[in-house]
Amino acid sequence: MDILVFKTNVTEPHQLSKIQSLLMPVTDIRQWTVDLEDCDKVLRIVCDNLNPREIEKLLFASGMFCRELED
User: Fold this and answer.
1) Number of independent structural domains in the chain
2) CATH assignment at residue 53
């Protein structure tokens, strides 16, 4: 199991439903959260064997910024 962490530009709670609709079809995702209080608006994904670029592409295609945070 992996934990992927991304910086996003998500600022409003209503954007979470859009993210949910994007991530729900991805069967390798076990759990996800967005910390709206964090300065980086961190999206954290618990998953199995998921390429972080796929998540970035999904959110970018929907007009949201998303970049993986490196360790």
Assistant:
1) 1
2) 3.30.70.100
The CB density around residue 65, as the number of other CB atoms within 10 Å, is 13
Reported pTM: 0.93
Q: Which residue has 């300065």 as its token pair?
A: 39
Is residue 46 within 8 A of residue 1, CB to CB? The reply is: yes
Encode pLDDT of 13-68 as tens digits: 999 999 999 999 999 999 999 999 999 999 999 999 999 999 999 999 999 999 99
| Token output for 57 | 């592409």
Residues 6+ apart with CB under 8 A from 6: 42, 43, 44, 45, 52, 55, 56, 59, 66, 67, 68, 69
Token output for 64: 């949201």
Domain that holds residue 17: 2-68
